[in-house]
Amino acid sequence: MKALISRLEAAAARPELMGEMMDRLGLDPQALVEEGRVLDLALAARRCAGCTAEEPCKSFLAATERAEHAPGFCANALFFETVREG
Fold first, then answer.
1. What is the CB neighbour count within 10 angstroms for residue 60?
2. From CA 57, how far away is CA 36, in angstroms rounded?
3. Counted domains in the chain
4. What is the spatial distance between Cα 20 and Cα 7, in angstroms, rounded to a whole number?
């Protein structure tokens, strides 16, 4: 049971990583909300919560101030590219 609780707690923290990733990519989640893309953001948060690349993500975020593209391990890389392209 402790392992399950630990995994759920880790998953709950991952959407925060998604926000940091969007910041590094110069993407504004509030702009997506204003465009009516709340469901897209919710699905992206769900992908992030289920992602198994938490440590590589944290390392990337710690080492990166700005990026043109999300790293290949990111479960939302395609979503972020779609947002960037408009």
1. 19
2. 27
3. 1
4. 20
